[in-house]
């Protein structure tokens, strides 16, 4: 399956924040609790997006430094502006490719990626590159949404409704595009990248919307695969999709759905 789609619109940082940011922050906090990294570490983050994990690392992990990278210049600009303290000397946010990180060999203690590794065209290459920048005994980690298991309930509902009206939408569903976001596939990927001791665990949060309009609005903003698809629809088809989703979920208050990610951590030989 291709890892990219015409509708993967990542340029609008504020719109993406409305769509995923609040949930990304919740997952980031739980991930860091599970990761339990040593204080005073030098961190490198891949695919920082709007800065959800970056901010959590600075607030919760007592790092010595954090270099956050993302291939999107717009996301990098947004992340710089939304750090709790944009002048924090510990933090740098730079444009960077997961397969060619802007860091020297053996220069960081923890390298991580939040909800982004599945979008990298060559994930094994990215994991090898992550090992390059780690100091001996460093900690390599990442987490991805459980797309194949319907792990993001509100996105899963969106694509199911879209496919009922447009069979072609099924191929755009992240569940179809990222079938390897499962414990077995991630374990195999890590082994192929020279990480046979990878520990993988689920992280779950509850996503709650006060009413259906609050659920629907982020899909109209165009930032992310599902919103990109929604925003590109003609008005009549978008209205039909909205009605289909309302029929599936009801318009009562609130709407509660589960979101689940798979997290991986492993020390590298030191």
**CATH architectural name:** 3-Layer(aba) Sandwich
Q: What would the average pLDDT be, to the nearest integer?
A: 91
The percent range for helix content is 40-55%
Number of domains in the coordinates? 1
Number of strands: 7
Number of helices: 10
Percent of residues in beta strands: 15-25%
Cα-based radius of gyration, to the nearest Å: 18 Å
Could you please say which CATH topology applies here?
Answer: Rossmann fold
Q: What general outline do the C-alpha atoms trace? A: globular
Trace the largest sheet across and list its strands: 3-2-1-4-5-7-6
> How far apart lie the N and C ends?
36 Å
**Main sheet overview:** 7 strands, mixed
Determine the CATH superfamily. Answer: Vaccinia Virus protein VP39
Order of helices and strands: HEHEHEEHEHHHEHHHE
List the keywords.
270 residues; alpha/beta; 7-stranded mixed beta sheet; 10 helices
Structure description:
- The two termini are 36 Å apart.
- The chain has a single domain, classed as Vaccinia Virus protein VP39 (Rossmann fold), CATH 3.40.50.150.
- Strands 3-2-1-4-5-7-6 form a seven-stranded mixed β-sheet.
- It is of the alpha/beta class and 270 residues long.
- The longest helix is centred in the first third of the chain and has 23 residues, at 13-35.
- It is 40% helix and 21% strand.
